């Protein structure tokens, strides 16, 4: 399957973290649905061109956090129930992401209106890719 | 196969190319040795493969000394040299017949499939192949006996982007299909970052840093290396100090 995941060796995040966050994002926007099978470690390793151990580490983190479920001998699935990270943690992560956007906008000298528009477009495009 | 190196020294005349190097490679991991030219990488590879005797210290591969047990060990080791070398008049087909004879198992079908993926000619003499084609042929020979340990000395040196990609994709394929321990030296930090689980940075014959690649990156991030990528870590740790 086409996973729409990408890894970048110049990204400051380790590769396993990029895979973990990328998969979580696909689940978050509904591109991977609850109960849906996730590509195997081998498939994903070949597709992303990374060591399978790196993919396995990302999977393990997601299983530990309840985003994915591992069924013995039967691969890995998106968890039926999305994990509830709690309102506090959700808010903290949104603030963190918003700060990143605000920093980029300030660096580029973008206006507030431009930044809001970019955010709206990003949300719309994620919704679009989920359908 | 496990590799244990303790306090290795390799001298060329009065110069210590390898100067007290110790490390361990756990089975199933991909251990990358990186360093600038002349850091001692190829000398270490020669000792690992039993092609050169260490002047001091000890190396054990699967608990055995490669210098003494070379013939027995090499049945389980696939190696590709830094400079591809084969009799110039022989083709891939000729060379395969020669190589296959040394091993108890030889994956002929896999070898042929690999040559096809690499778009390598079967019947052209070795001397007529390009640098990249020669390197890919060496890699194919290294993989054909389904080794437990792969030792690759700068497998992408001098290769174009397509050939480089072939090398790393093949390595990832091999890692995905079956467990194999890999020891590689490389200048190709992007490729290393993708395949390696462990890393040692060699500088002037000594180990500058050694450990799990993700832990080295986390450590770099904590100490303010920005961005904490392998390339940035490498440049910082191997740069020659400007003398005051």
List keywords for this structure.
heterodimer, A: mainly alpha, globular, B: 244 residues, alpha/beta, Rossmann fold, three-stranded antiparallel sheet, 9 strands
Task: List strands and helices in order, with pairings.
The complex is a heterodimer of chains A (131) and B (244).
Chain A: H1 15-28, E1 37-38, H2 41-48, H3 52-64, E2 68-70, E3 76-78, H4 87-108, H5 112-130
Antiparallel strand pairs in A: 1-3, 2-3
Chain B: E1 3-12, E2 15-25, E3 30-35, H1 41-48, E4 56-61, H2 70-74, E5 77-80, H3 92-100, H4 108-117, H5 131-143, E6 149-153, H6 161-177, E7 181-186, H7 189-195, E8 198-203, E9 206-212, H8 213-222, H9 230-238
Helix pairs in contact in B: 5-6
Describe the structure.
The complex is a heterodimer of chains A (131) and B (244). Chain A is mainly alpha-helical and 131 residues long. Chain A has 5 helices and 3 strands. Chain A has a 3-stranded antiparallel sheet with strand order 1-3-2. Chain A is globular. The two termini of chain A are 16 Å apart. The relative contact order of chain A is 0.12. With 244 residues, chain B is an alpha/beta fold. Helices cover 36% and strands 25% of the residues of chain B. In chain B, a hairpin with a 2-residue loop joins strand 1 (3-12) and strand 2. Chains A and B meet through helix 2 and helix 3 of A and helix 6, helix 7 and helix 8 of B.
Low-confidence stretches of chain A: none
Q: Overall mean pLDDT score of chain A? A: 87
Order of helices and strands of chain A: HEHHEEHH
Distance between the termini of chain B: 45 Å
Average residue-wise pLDDT of chain B: 93
Query: Helix count of chain B, per DSSP?
Result: 9
CATH class of chain B: Alpha Beta
Note the main sheet of chain A.
3 strands, antiparallel
How many strand segments of chain A? 3
Radius of gyration of chain B: 18 Å
- Radius of gyration of chain A, taken over Cα atoms and rounded to an integer in Å: 16 Å
Query: Strand percentage of chain B, roughly?
Result: 25-35%
Work out the largest interface and the residue count of each chain: A-B, 19 and 26 residues
Taken in chain order, the helices and strands of chain B follow as EEEHEHEHHHEHEHEEHH
CATH-defined topology of chain B:
Rossmann fold
The outline of chain A comes out as globular
